[in-house]
Request: fold
Amino acid sequence: MSNLVIRLATTDDAIDIAGVHQISREFAYRPILSEELLNAQTLADREKYWKEQTTLASFSDAEIYVAEYSEASDDARIVGFIVLLKHKDPNGFDSGDRVKGKDADGEIDRIYVHPDFVGKGAGKALMCHALQRLKALECKKAFLWVFEANTTAREFYQAMGFSTDGDRRQIKPYPHDLLYTRTL
Ligand SMILES: CC(C)(COP(=O)(O)OP(=O)(O)OC[C@H]1O[C@@H](n2cnc3c(N)ncnc32)[C@H](O)[C@@H]1OP(=O)(O)O)[C@@H](O)C(=O)NCCC(=O)NCCS
Reply:
Protein backbone atom coordinates (compact mmCIF):
# COMPACT_ATOMS: atom_id res chain seq x y z
CA MET A 1 0.00 0.00 0.00
CA SER A 2 2.10 2.89 -1.24
CA ASN A 3 -0.52 5.50 -0.33
CA LEU A 4 -0.35 4.73 3.36
CA VAL A 5 0.78 7.38 5.84
CA ILE A 6 1.67 6.79 9.50
CA ARG A 7 1.07 9.87 11.62
CA LEU A 8 0.49 10.89 15.21
CA ALA A 9 -3.17 10.66 16.23
CA THR A 10 -5.14 13.71 17.33
CA THR A 11 -8.41 13.98 19.25
CA ASP A 12 -10.15 14.45 15.88
CA ASP A 13 -9.23 10.82 15.10
CA ALA A 14 -10.88 9.38 18.22
CA ILE A 15 -14.12 8.27 16.55
CA ASP A 16 -12.30 6.61 13.63
CA ILE A 17 -9.86 4.88 16.01
CA ALA A 18 -12.81 3.62 18.07
CA GLY A 19 -14.45 2.24 14.90
CA VAL A 20 -11.30 0.35 13.86
CA HIS A 21 -10.80 -0.89 17.43
CA GLN A 22 -14.37 -2.20 17.66
CA ILE A 23 -14.42 -4.07 14.33
CA SER A 24 -10.84 -5.36 14.55
CA ARG A 25 -11.40 -6.64 18.10
CA GLU A 26 -14.57 -8.41 17.00
CA PHE A 27 -12.70 -9.94 14.04
CA ALA A 28 -9.75 -11.15 16.13
CA TYR A 29 -11.40 -12.07 19.42
CA ARG A 30 -14.72 -13.69 18.45
CA PRO A 31 -13.06 -17.13 18.50
CA ILE A 32 -11.19 -16.34 21.73
CA LEU A 33 -13.51 -14.43 24.09
CA SER A 34 -16.96 -15.13 25.47
CA GLU A 35 -19.90 -13.16 24.06
CA GLU A 36 -20.10 -11.28 27.35
CA LEU A 37 -16.46 -10.13 27.24
CA LEU A 38 -16.67 -9.38 23.54
CA ASN A 39 -19.64 -7.08 24.03
CA ALA A 40 -18.62 -5.55 27.36
CA GLN A 41 -18.05 -2.16 25.73
CA THR A 42 -20.24 -0.45 23.15
CA LEU A 43 -18.96 1.65 20.28
CA ALA A 44 -20.02 4.74 22.27
CA ASP A 45 -17.89 3.54 25.23
CA ARG A 46 -14.93 3.17 22.92
CA GLU A 47 -15.42 6.60 21.37
CA LYS A 48 -15.40 8.12 24.85
CA TYR A 49 -12.32 6.10 25.79
CA TRP A 50 -10.34 7.14 22.68
CA LYS A 51 -11.31 10.78 23.09
CA GLU A 52 -9.77 10.61 26.56
CA GLN A 53 -6.70 8.66 25.40
CA THR A 54 -5.92 10.96 22.46
CA THR A 55 -6.30 13.95 24.78
CA LEU A 56 -4.14 12.43 27.53
CA ALA A 57 -1.41 11.07 25.24
CA SER A 58 0.45 14.37 25.03
CA PHE A 59 0.64 14.49 28.85
CA SER A 60 1.81 10.90 29.40
CA ASP A 61 4.45 8.44 28.21
CA ALA A 62 2.03 7.10 25.56
CA GLU A 63 2.06 7.87 21.84
CA ILE A 64 -0.74 6.88 19.48
CA TYR A 65 -0.13 6.58 15.74
CA VAL A 66 -2.67 5.96 12.99
CA ALA A 67 -2.26 4.40 9.55
CA GLU A 68 -4.15 6.51 7.04
CA TYR A 69 -4.88 5.09 3.62
CA SER A 70 -6.03 7.11 0.61
CA GLU A 71 -6.92 6.26 -2.96
CA ALA A 72 -7.42 9.90 -3.94
CA SER A 73 -6.28 13.12 -2.30
CA ASP A 74 -9.58 13.70 -0.49
CA ASP A 75 -10.59 10.22 0.73
CA ALA A 76 -8.10 9.44 3.51
CA ARG A 77 -9.37 6.90 6.04
CA ILE A 78 -7.86 5.44 9.17
CA VAL A 79 -7.24 1.73 8.68
CA GLY A 80 -5.21 0.95 11.79
CA PHE A 81 -3.52 2.30 14.88
CA ILE A 82 -0.79 1.50 17.37
CA VAL A 83 -0.12 2.66 20.93
CA LEU A 84 3.41 2.69 22.32
CA LEU A 85 4.58 3.41 25.84
CA LYS A 86 7.99 4.38 27.08
CA HIS A 87 8.51 3.04 30.58
CA LYS A 88 11.21 4.81 32.53
CA ASP A 89 11.43 1.97 35.04
CA PRO A 90 10.52 -1.30 33.31
CA ASN A 91 10.06 -3.21 36.53
CA GLY A 92 8.51 -0.54 38.66
CA PHE A 93 5.74 1.04 36.65
CA ASP A 94 2.94 -1.17 37.84
CA SER A 95 2.34 -3.75 40.47
CA GLY A 96 1.38 -7.39 40.46
CA ASP A 97 0.87 -9.13 37.15
CA ARG A 98 -0.87 -6.25 35.40
CA VAL A 99 2.22 -5.17 33.50
CA LYS A 100 5.59 -6.86 33.39
CA GLY A 101 8.26 -6.31 30.78
CA LYS A 102 11.31 -7.74 32.54
CA ASP A 103 14.20 -5.50 31.51
CA ALA A 104 12.32 -4.11 28.50
CA ASP A 105 11.53 -0.42 28.62
CA GLY A 106 9.34 0.11 25.55
CA GLU A 107 5.88 -1.38 25.24
CA ILE A 108 3.63 -1.97 22.26
CA ASP A 109 0.37 -1.56 24.12
CA ARG A 110 -2.10 -2.07 21.26
CA ILE A 111 -2.10 -2.61 17.52
CA TYR A 112 -5.26 -3.03 15.47
CA VAL A 113 -5.83 -3.04 11.71
CA HIS A 114 -9.29 -2.91 10.09
CA PRO A 115 -10.21 -6.42 8.83
CA ASP A 116 -10.58 -5.10 5.23
CA PHE A 117 -6.88 -4.15 5.33
CA VAL A 118 -5.38 -7.11 7.20
CA GLY A 119 -2.48 -8.74 5.35
CA LYS A 120 -1.73 -5.66 3.22
CA GLY A 121 1.20 -4.20 5.12
CA ALA A 122 -0.50 -1.65 7.43
CA GLY A 123 0.44 -3.60 10.57
CA LYS A 124 4.07 -3.80 9.49
CA ALA A 125 4.15 -0.06 8.67
CA LEU A 126 2.69 0.78 12.10
CA MET A 127 5.00 -1.59 13.96
CA CYS A 128 8.17 -0.42 12.12
CA HIS A 129 7.24 3.16 12.91
CA ALA A 130 6.60 2.38 16.60
CA LEU A 131 9.87 0.45 16.97
CA GLN A 132 11.84 3.29 15.37
CA ARG A 133 10.10 5.73 17.67
CA LEU A 134 10.90 3.69 20.81
CA LYS A 135 14.51 3.48 19.69
CA ALA A 136 14.58 7.26 19.22
CA LEU A 137 13.23 7.54 22.78
CA GLU A 138 16.33 5.53 23.86
CA CYS A 139 14.48 2.35 24.71
CA LYS A 140 16.71 -0.71 24.45
CA LYS A 141 14.12 -3.47 24.33
CA ALA A 142 10.42 -3.63 23.43
CA PHE A 143 7.78 -5.94 24.84
CA LEU A 144 4.10 -6.72 24.35
CA TRP A 145 1.47 -9.07 25.67
CA VAL A 146 -0.83 -11.03 23.37
CA PHE A 147 -3.57 -13.57 24.04
CA GLU A 148 -1.98 -16.99 23.78
CA ALA A 149 -4.86 -18.06 21.52
CA ASN A 150 -4.36 -15.13 19.10
CA THR A 151 -2.18 -17.12 16.71
CA THR A 152 -2.51 -14.63 13.83
CA ALA A 153 -1.11 -11.80 15.93
CA ARG A 154 1.59 -14.06 17.36
CA GLU A 155 2.76 -14.97 13.84
CA PHE A 156 2.75 -11.29 12.93
CA TYR A 157 4.87 -10.43 16.00
CA GLN A 158 7.32 -13.19 15.13
CA ALA A 159 7.58 -11.79 11.59
CA MET A 160 8.32 -8.42 13.23
CA GLY A 161 11.28 -9.83 15.15
CA PHE A 162 9.63 -10.53 18.52
CA SER A 163 10.05 -13.82 20.32
CA THR A 164 8.66 -15.43 23.46
CA ASP A 165 10.23 -17.60 26.11
CA GLY A 166 6.77 -18.71 27.21
CA ASP A 167 6.32 -16.21 30.05
CA ARG A 168 2.55 -15.94 30.70
CA ARG A 169 0.14 -13.89 32.77
CA GLN A 170 -3.62 -13.83 33.22
CA ILE A 171 -5.77 -10.79 33.88
CA LYS A 172 -9.05 -12.41 34.86
CA PRO A 173 -11.63 -12.82 33.40
CA TYR A 174 -9.54 -12.69 30.22
CA PRO A 175 -7.59 -15.71 28.92
CA HIS A 176 -3.82 -16.10 29.28
CA ASP A 177 -1.42 -13.66 27.63
CA LEU A 178 2.08 -14.48 26.38
CA LEU A 179 5.00 -12.07 26.69
CA TYR A 180 6.98 -11.24 23.53
CA THR A 181 10.16 -9.15 23.48
CA ARG A 182 12.75 -7.91 21.00
CA THR A 183 15.82 -5.72 21.09
CA LEU A 184 15.67 -2.35 19.37
C1 LIG B 1 -2.01 -8.55 13.90
C2 LIG B 1 -2.24 -7.45 12.86
C3 LIG B 1 -2.02 -6.07 13.51
C4 LIG B 1 -1.22 -7.62 11.71
O1 LIG B 1 -1.38 -6.54 10.80
P1 LIG B 1 -1.40 -6.78 9.22
O2 LIG B 1 -1.59 -5.46 8.57
O3 LIG B 1 -2.37 -7.84 8.90
O4 LIG B 1 0.09 -7.34 8.97
P2 LIG B 1 0.98 -7.11 7.68
O5 LIG B 1 0.16 -7.32 6.46
O6 LIG B 1 1.66 -5.78 7.78
O7 LIG B 1 2.06 -8.26 7.81
C5 LIG B 1 3.38 -8.01 8.28
C6 LIG B 1 4.19 -9.27 8.28
O8 LIG B 1 3.63 -10.20 9.20
C7 LIG B 1 3.36 -11.44 8.54
N1 LIG B 1 2.09 -11.99 9.05
C8 LIG B 1 0.99 -11.31 9.37
N2 LIG B 1 0.01 -12.18 9.76
C9 LIG B 1 0.57 -13.42 9.66
C10 LIG B 1 0.08 -14.74 9.88
N3 LIG B 1 -1.15 -14.97 10.30
N4 LIG B 1 0.93 -15.78 9.67
C11 LIG B 1 2.19 -15.57 9.24
N5 LIG B 1 2.70 -14.34 9.00
C12 LIG B 1 1.90 -13.30 9.20
C13 LIG B 1 3.20 -11.06 7.08
O9 LIG B 1 3.47 -12.14 6.24
C14 LIG B 1 4.20 -9.96 6.93
O10 LIG B 1 5.50 -10.50 6.76
P3 LIG B 1 6.49 -9.96 5.62
O11 LIG B 1 6.79 -8.56 5.97
O12 LIG B 1 7.66 -10.87 5.71
O13 LIG B 1 5.73 -10.06 4.36
C15 LIG B 1 -3.67 -7.56 12.24
O14 LIG B 1 -3.84 -8.84 11.72
C16 LIG B 1 -4.78 -7.24 13.22
O15 LIG B 1 -5.12 -6.08 13.43
N6 LIG B 1 -5.37 -8.29 13.81
C17 LIG B 1 -6.52 -8.13 14.69
C18 LIG B 1 -6.22 -7.38 15.98
C19 LIG B 1 -5.16 -8.06 16.80
O16 LIG B 1 -5.17 -9.27 17.00
N7 LIG B 1 -4.25 -7.21 17.32
C20 LIG B 1 -3.20 -7.67 18.18
C21 LIG B 1 -3.66 -7.59 19.60
S1 LIG B 1 -2.40 -8.17 20.72
Q: What stands out?
A: The beta strands are 4-8, 62-69, 77-86, 106-113, 141-147, 168-170, 176-183. Residues 14-29 form the longest helix (16 residues). The two ends are 25 Å apart (CA to CA).
